[in-house]
Amino acid sequence: MSATRQRNYASQKGSPTKIPCRVATTANVASLSGLLTIDTITVSSGDRVLVWQQGTPAENNIYLAASGAWTVAIDMSLADDLVLGMKVYIYDGVVYKDKSFHLTAISPVTFKQSTPIQVGSLTLTSGDWDLVSGLYEYDLSDANILSNSIVDVIPDNADIAIVQAAEVLPKTVSSAGSVKLYATNAPTDDIGITINIF
Question: Which of 113, 143, 177 is the C-terminal boundary of a domain?
Fold first, then answer.
């Protein structure tokens, strides 16, 4: 086992959350080869792709796209890499962008789209944003969300100008028991949000 393999394997073996994929397939892919268009995105070499709807179930897995034949991602290539319930996040595409999947079976590899769990609705007070390294940070210290969770934050009012201008990001930095939201400008109004976890 190479040193690179050892480092990657040590960091991912048994992890409940896998390295995110760029896209997920929307149907059976006839040939897992070449720089294909998946969910409107033409993949690049090295992109991670969740292949989960194959007519031959044994082909389902997370792959690295290539100009030639695709290969199974290194963190999914051994039996010990597969843990029931582990999650993977999709960050590009149309149908599955910002969606998550979890592993429901190991042989054959079977993924299912995850249903978010609503944590609840909160109001972010305008005066509670702190300037940290050039960004305004809101620390939900009592959110009680696990560090490996994928978090989605949805403003209750999409017309709040400061939410759009400040870009309160749905992809948040999270640590055990807290979620930190970042904005480019200090919000001047209270913001209602709904938090989902995947």
Answer: 113
pTM given for the model: 0.60
State which residues form the domain around 79: 3-113
Task: Dump strand ranges (E) for the chain.
Answer: 23-24, 37-38, 41-42, 48-51, 61-64, 71-72, 87-89, 100-105, 110-113, 117-124, 130-132, 135-140, 151-155, 173-175, 178-183, 191-197
Per-residue model confidence as pLDDT tens for the chain (198 residues): 444 444 454 455 556 678 899 999 999 999 999 999 999 999 999 999 999 999 999 999 999 999 999 999 999 988 888 888 888 889 899 999 878 898 999 989 999 888 766 556 667 777 788 887 777 777 776 555 555 555 666 665 544 333 333 445 445 555 555 567 777 777 777 777 776 665
